[in-house]
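Fig. S4 source data, part A: sequence.
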Amino acid sequence: MMEAYPGIENSEMFVHLRRCMEERVPHHMENMFTYPDGSQGWFELSIEPVPEGAFILSLDVTGRKRAETELKHDADIQSAINSLLRMSLTDLPLQDLLCQALDIILGIPWLSHEGRGVVFLVEDEQPEVLVMKAHRGLPEPMVMKCAQLPFGKCLCGQTASTGQVQFADRLDRRHDIVYDGMAQHGHYCVPIHIAGSVVGVFSLYMAEGHRYDEAEAAFLQAVADVLAGIIERRRALDKVLESLREKEVLLREVHHRVKNNLQVVSSLLRLQSGHVKDANALQMFRATEERVRSMALVHEQLYRSPALSSIDFGTFVREICQRLVFSYAADPAAVTLTLDVEDVDLGIDLAIPCGLVINELVTNALLHGLAGGKGKIGVSLKSHGNDYVLIISDDGTGFPRELDFRHTESLGMQLVMSLTRQLQGSISLDREEGTQWKIMFKSRE
């Protein structure tokens, strides 16, 4: 046998044959055979010991092996595509997404690549230039020389200009960019299309002499299509985020300008009050000024707030109450202010009317409730599920029992009733010990 088939003693089949004859037990194996034309086939060998030596049964299983290989390839392709699609749903920056995509593609075992890949994209500022956005395994000279490629230059640029897959099994005349020491390699350069336009090129470096394969090219085009979806989604998301940032800046500017305008109104009222001689009229000017300042404070808090749509109501209440005490109390040190406000964020639709209610009732306590300008004022805001309970109290002389607070000529109380309706809430009064107002309203969420 060794004379008829030189070198067979070094083959796996010969090892099994010898063991079968020595051990006198059957052996089974699969063996790949290379034909003279370079094509390959698979055979399943059964070696049985017989008295005369060994009986070998050879069965051509090339079709089965090819089917198994295709199934394995299909499974790898599906796994890679699924990984790319899952990754596309993350919120990573586009460059990170493209780098991870290259890692997934380079991890496919049956692709005869050199562990190198690159993704170029077209940017709005340079519509006819490919800009390198992600790469894996490229030597530094190549990264520098290929950082930007005009359409039509080198293999990737030709892919962009033609919109067709370009393939090379080695460095050839189409490679415009070369440098000393550049290793021989092949290429698949695949266009990335969105809405019929080339928006980038995906390039995979292959071993020198690698043969063009339709299945490989089809798979890489499918990868490029998935990359197109990733790029389109990320760019759309970036546009939305940029639009939101612009709207956030605009909204902050609106709150800032409203606050400034209200402060101008407040200053005008203060200036005008300096020319008022009547005490009642002067009090009306001061009360109106404080109401305007309370509304201005809401917009100032919204301008500072990270959320823009709600404010830290505890901070807001503390600033309002402290300002009112220093504005109206003859001796601010004689007034004890007790605040018990939960850590809640209120939107502008609740913060302004609620703030004005606090402004009116605390002002009323300072001007009319505390005997001799001394005493305690408390403000509490608690949440119970979707309900809020606002309590404003003082230990002063109490709200006059002969007055019906729901029907009074006092502008302040009329405003409180109107604001309570705006909150879609209810209001009650306890006059047993001083004065305690309870306003209940619901969250707007």
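Fig. S4 source data, part B ends here. The chain has three domains: 8-60, 94-234, 310-445.
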